[in-house]
């Protein structure tokens, strides 16, 4: 066994009880190896139902094709599952990847719900972010009877969890049509009512601002945009990417998180729940908490309760500062 295989064996051994708990709660989508904290930065190994997804970085060649094949065999033996291997090399020109011939269906499970986990699609990111299970679990537990706004919805994992948790309506907002299509497929896979599950292909910035009763700004304001009348929701989830430029302004979570959080809070009813995330490793949990508190206070809607949570155990951290920080708070 080489060093990477040894690290993977140790990671699998550490996860024995976690994997058993996951199985019992109907989850077969789990991070098996989180390289940055488990001995091989640049390498991650995930199980997505019938698929083993190995991801390496073009800039850090910690594993070549032979290593990846050996790691896959190790996973198959440890999990006693005939997993199809998909290997993604990220952040570089496409590198030769092993043929992927498994025919599907590519359906993975989390907390008893089904998700489309096709490893080959238009984008490079997996269709379900495993670290976000923590938020999906939370939302599902708090969604009963709620109206839910899911902003930067991607493939609507949050929306599916909310509806499965008894939400009465869910709005999923994203400007990527293909991601929302997967979201609708995810809802259908779980037999969830399409009437209660709205997918809105629109820019998140003007959408949130209108719902919050704020004006639409930027050069986009002079062009056409989807109109909404102001209203509030019981639960608002804000999960922005690190950076994106739009005609309505920039999504820039490092330099201007409040410009996203303020309209998101504005979309929540008094006493409603706001779940807001930050994924950038250089921003600490304490810094994020301070930004979140200050933004709400400046709006005159301080948090009555606020906690910051991280991902679940399959995403161990080497410094107690996991990149994903999830603020969960009740706004006044
Ligand atoms: C980090 S992913 C969100 C993950 C998602 N919340 C989940 O549960 O898996 C970021 C998403 O934001 C979308 N996005 C980025 N900028 C946007 C904008 N200005 N308006 C709408 N969607 C945007 C992208 O299309 C992408 O789907």
Q: Into which percentage range does the β-strand content fall?
A: 25-35%
Q: Strand sequence of the main sheet, in spatial order?
A: 9-8-7-10-13-15-14
Number of domains: 2
Bound molecules: S-adenosylmethionine
Number of H- or I-type helical stretches: 10
* Poorly predicted runs of 5 or more residues: none
The averaged pLDDT comes out at: 95
CATH topology of the largest domain: Rossmann fold
Distance N to C terminus: 56 Å
Overview of this structure, please?
- The protein is an alpha/beta fold and 332 residues long.
- It folds into 2 domains: 3-113, 2-Layer Sandwich (Transcription Regulator spoIIAA); 130-331, 3-Layer(aba) Sandwich (Rossmann fold), CATH 3.40.50.
- The protein has 10 helices and 15 strands.
- It has helices at 3-14, 16-24, 35-38, 65-79, 133-142, 157-164, 177-189, 204-211, 258-266, 285-298; strands spanning 29-34, 43-48, 51-57, 84-90, 107-110, 113-116, 147-151, 169-174, 197-201, 233-238, 243-246, 249-252, 268-278, 303-309, 325-331.
- A 7-stranded mixed sheet has the order 9-8-7-10-13-15-14, sandwiched between helices. Strands 1-2-3-4 form a 4-stranded mixed sheet. It has a two-stranded antiparallel sheet with strand order 5-6.
- A hairpin with a 2-residue loop joins strand 5 and strand 6.
- The structure holds S-adenosylmethionine.
- The site of S-adenosylmethionine (SAM) has 19 residues, from helix 6, helix 8 and strand 11.
């Amino acid at each position: 066994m080489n060093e990477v295989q040894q690290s993977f064996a140790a990671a699998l051994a550490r996860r024995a009880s976690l994997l058993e708990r996951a199985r019992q709660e109907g989850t077969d989508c789990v991070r098996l190896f989180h390289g940055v904290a488990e001995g091989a930065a640049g390498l991650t190994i995930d199980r997505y139902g019938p698929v083993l997804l190995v991801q390496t970085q073009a800039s850090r060649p910690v594993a070549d094709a032979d290593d990846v094949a050996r790691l896959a065999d190790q996973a198959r033996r440890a999990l006693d599952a005939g997993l199809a291997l998909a290997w993604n090399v990220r952040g570089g020109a496409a590198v030769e990847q092993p043929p992927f011939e498994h025919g599907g269906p590519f359906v993975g499970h989390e907390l008893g719900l089904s998700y489309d986990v096709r490893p080959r699609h238009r984008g490079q990111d997996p269709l379900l972010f495993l670290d976000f299970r923590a938020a999906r679990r939370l939302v599902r537990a708090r969604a009963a009877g709620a109206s839910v706004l899911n902003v930067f919805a991607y493939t609507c994992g949050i929306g599916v969890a909310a509806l499965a948790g008894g939400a009465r309506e869910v709005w999923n907002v994203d400007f990527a049509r293909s991601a929302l299509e997967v979201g609708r497929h995810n809802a259908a896979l779980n037999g969830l009512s399409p009437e209660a599950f709205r997918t809105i292909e629109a820019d998140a910035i003007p959408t949130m601002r209108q719902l919050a009763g704020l004006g639409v700004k930027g050069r986009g304001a002079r062009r056409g945009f989807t109109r909404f009348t102001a209203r509030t929701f019981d639960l608002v989830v804000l999960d922005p990417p690190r950076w994106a430029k739009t005609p309505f302004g920039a999504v820039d979570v490092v330099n201007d998180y409040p410009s996203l959080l303020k309209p998101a809070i504005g979309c929540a009813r008094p006493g409603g729940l706001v779940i807001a995330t930050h994924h950038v490793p250089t921003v600490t949990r304490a810094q994020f908490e301070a930004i979140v508190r200050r933004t709400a206070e400046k709006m005159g809607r301080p948090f009555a309760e606020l906690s910051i949570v991280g991902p679940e155990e399959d995403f161990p951290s080497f410094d107690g500062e996991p990149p994903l920080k999830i603020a969960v708070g009740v706004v006044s």
